[in-house]
Amino acid sequence: MPTPLDRDLLKTFVAVVEAGSFSHAAPKIGRSQSAVSMQMQRLEQTVGKPLLIRGVKAVVPNAAGTELLVHARRLLKLSDEAWASITQPEEIGCVRLGVPDDYAAYLLPPVLARFAAEHALVTVELVCEPSSALVEAIGAGRIDLAIVTRLPDQAIEVVRREPFVWVASPSHVAWQDDPLPVALFEAGCAARMRVLNALDVERRPYRCTYSSASLLGLIAVVQAGLAIAGLALCSVPPALQVIGRKEGLPELETLEIGILRNANSRTSAVECLEGFLRAALRP
């Protein structure tokens, strides 16, 4: 009879693969690096074959590890759902969450991953639109919750203040061009307003080389050296560099992030996600 797979060992295995190393996985599961290493040895002994390729800079799964990873994630998900059905039976349902493109790409994934692990019976349906459109969607009842960048005239509680920075390609010096080439989010976006206000205050001539709601499109234009842009610090990809005063650029006003809720959305699932987001987004 085959030996049952230990849930804790599978959890450690998944954490190591996702983190890329024993040291980075350790704090995610609340164990020491040596304990993580010992658990991986135990799992490999249990299945009777190596599961990881232990490189100098990173740990990656081999063919057997890749196969086990699929089943491990499935088993852990089923285990979480079974536990939630007994301990949190009232926390069930679907929540429609609106979020701007840039926050969805970098700020939100780890938050939603933790929420899914703790509240396995709640499904989150993500709607990506600019903050101005999300405010309208909340008012129209199309979504339950929205993470938005606060506009100057909005009376909403600020749960997070995020630095707003200039970014550029590390291989180009677009900020030296005159007029300054700038890539902007679409009209009505809080980030766009802050960029234009900062340039107007210092009377810096500029030209808009790209305007869209697409974060990926904006990043591509900047990475190609065709423009610079303003991004939330949490949304800056590794391919871009942060620039600022030493490059002769004006300071950008900090972004204020708040959470809006549809007044008619009163389910326990909505309340659960709202509370989780408020706690998770606070620095």
From TrEMBL:
GO molecular function: DNA binding; DNA-binding transcription factor activity
Segments forming domain HTH lysR-type: 5-62
Record flagged with keyword Transcription regulation: yes
Keyword field: DNA-binding, Transcription, Transcription regulation
Pfam families: HTH_1, LysR_substrate
Classification via PANTHER family: HTH-TYPE TRANSCRIPTIONAL REGULATOR LRHA-RELATED (PTHR30579:SF7), TRANSCRIPTIONAL REGULATOR (PTHR30579)
Annotated family: Belongs to the LysR transcriptional regulatory family.
Protein name in UniProt: Transcriptional regulator
Organism: Bordetella genomosp. 10
